[in-house]
């Protein structure tokens, strides 16, 4: 598979470099060395053995290709890894290697070790996005624009409140992700530390402390809540990022033109149309998010696993879990750049507010006319005026004034100044400004 062409561009390049095959080997090695140290501290391994092991692995070279080949016969990477690593030890200490552990202990714990720095990186990126969004909220808190429902113009909002919703979405997912625990895995063959009695739980707790992982209540070989919680939390971040990318891509359309992605040499160019400036960052974000959503479905469907060890369900988790983390990190790298350099065009927002000739203000006009005309007739008049304004490209307020004075004889029944104000989008922004201030206050409480 041409992964460098089809998969890696959506991922964080730094994360890819830090989560390669060698990194997995080192994570598994870290688990096994920590296990030997914990067991030595309890007297189950002779004094000095764990130190000898660590020294012998300092300059050891692992054959990653050989380990990969061994997965086909063993079903997971831990089996060939343990075999190869044990072979690198002196004969008199080989028997203390991987003592009391099973393959799933190694793989699950290694994945948690690989993911720990990734979650820290995601938290940093989400904090960076929050700062960029807050700056946009401050700048455009009172900037009116068209609010759209069902892809059509609806009523005015401010660009500041649109960004506020983006920011709250990202921050909600950040807080959810930060609450996810990455627990150590250690249960032995059937999850009850067979042959070691109460020492097993002591070792599990000590392992977690030594490796900097969370302490689980019990071994979780077929209790996949930790994976379910992490996978769905990553998906929530992907959804929040995708929402931003979708909105931005719609607002960058030539006919709308209210925002543009940050410019960069060659960014967004077309292979055949020199005039185009495609929203490529949004495409990368959305492409990554869609893949995460698919991976999440795999993780959710693997949540119930049989008896004391999964048969295929556990195996199906590995790639989707790791890829989700790398995809979300890649998406957030793009979101951070997007928000920090987003080009905003208030004058085009104003132009689009006037695209209907002011007909977008039919609702407040109907509210103004209702006491005089009655609710039903007020709605009919405001709607008819909007249609005439659109068809004849005349100002909505002018059409209304003509209709009220010439056809309805209400020139004295409706205050002209009030009518003018009812047609002004900047005076019909609801709680937009208050929502921005409320969101900013909430964002500070992190």
Automatic annotation (TrEMBL):
Gene3D superfamilies: Fumarase/aspartase (C-terminal domain) (1.10.40.30), Fumarase/aspartase (Central domain) (1.20.200.10). The keyword Lyase applies. It comes from the Bacteria. It holds the Pfam family Lyase_1. CDD domains: pCLME (cd01597). GO terms for molecular function: lyase activity. Keywords: Lyase. Residues 27-294 form the Fumarate lyase N-terminal domain. SUPFAM superfamilies: L-aspartase-like. Belongs to the class-II fumarase/aspartase family. This is Adenylosuccinate lyase family protein. The lineage of its organism: Bacteria, Pseudomonadati, Pseudomonadota, Gammaproteobacteria, Oceanospirillales.
């Amino acid at each position: 598979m041409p992964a460098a062409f089809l998969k890696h561009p959506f991922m964080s390049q730094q994360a890819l470099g830090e989560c390669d095959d060698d990194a997995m080997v080192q994570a598994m090695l870290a688990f096994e060395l920590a296990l030997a140290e914990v067991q030595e501290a309890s007297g189950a391994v002779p004094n000095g053995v764990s130190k000898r092991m660590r020294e012998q692995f300092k300059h050891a070279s692992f054959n990653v290709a050989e380990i990969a080949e061994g997965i086909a016969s063993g079903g997971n990477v831990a089996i060939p890894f343990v075999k190869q690593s044990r072979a690198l030890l002196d004969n008199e200490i080989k028997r203390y290697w991987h003592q009391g552990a099973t393959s799933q202990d190694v793989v699950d714990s290694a994945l948690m070790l690989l993911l720990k720095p990734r979650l820290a990186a995601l938290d940093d990126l989400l904090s960076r996005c929050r700062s960029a969004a807050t700056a946009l909220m401050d700048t455009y808190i009172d900037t009116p624009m068209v609010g759209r429902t069902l892809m059509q113009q609806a009523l005015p909002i401010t660009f500041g409140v649109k960004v506020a919703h983006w920011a709250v979405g990202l921050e909600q997912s950040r807080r959810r992700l930060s609450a996810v625990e990455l627990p150590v895995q250690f249960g032995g063959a059937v999850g009850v530390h067979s042959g070691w009695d109460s020492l097993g739980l002591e070792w599990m707790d000590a392992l977690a402390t030594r490796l900097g992982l969370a302490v689980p209540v019990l071994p979780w070989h077929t209790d996949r809540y930790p994976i379910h919680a992490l996978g769905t939390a990553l998906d929530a971040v992907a959804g929040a990022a995708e929402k931003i990318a979708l909105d931005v891509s719609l607002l960058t359309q030539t006919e709308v033109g209210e925002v543009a992605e940050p410019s960069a040499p060659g960014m967004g160019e077309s292979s055949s149309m020199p005039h185009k400036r495609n929203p490529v960052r949004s495409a990368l974000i959305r492409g990554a998010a869609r893949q995460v959503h698919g991976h999440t479905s795999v993780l959710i469907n693997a949540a119930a696993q049989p008896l004391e060890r999964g048969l295929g369900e556990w195996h199906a988790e590995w790639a989707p879990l790791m890829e989700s983390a790398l995809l979300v990190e890649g998406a957030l790298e793009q979101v951070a750049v997007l928000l920090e350099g987003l080009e905003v065009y208030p004058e085009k927002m104003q132009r689009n507010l006037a695209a209907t000739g002011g007909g977008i203000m039919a609702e407040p006009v109907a509210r103004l006319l209702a006491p005089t005309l009655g609710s039903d007739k007020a709605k009919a008049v405001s709607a008819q005026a909007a249609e005439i304004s659109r068809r004849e490209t005349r100002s909505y307020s002018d059409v209304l004034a003509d209709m009220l004075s010439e056809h309805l004889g209400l020139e004295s029944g409706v205050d002209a100044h009030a009518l003018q104000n009812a047609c002004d989008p900047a005076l019909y922004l609801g709680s937009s400004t208050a929502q921005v201030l409320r969101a900013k206050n909430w964002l500070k409480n992190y």
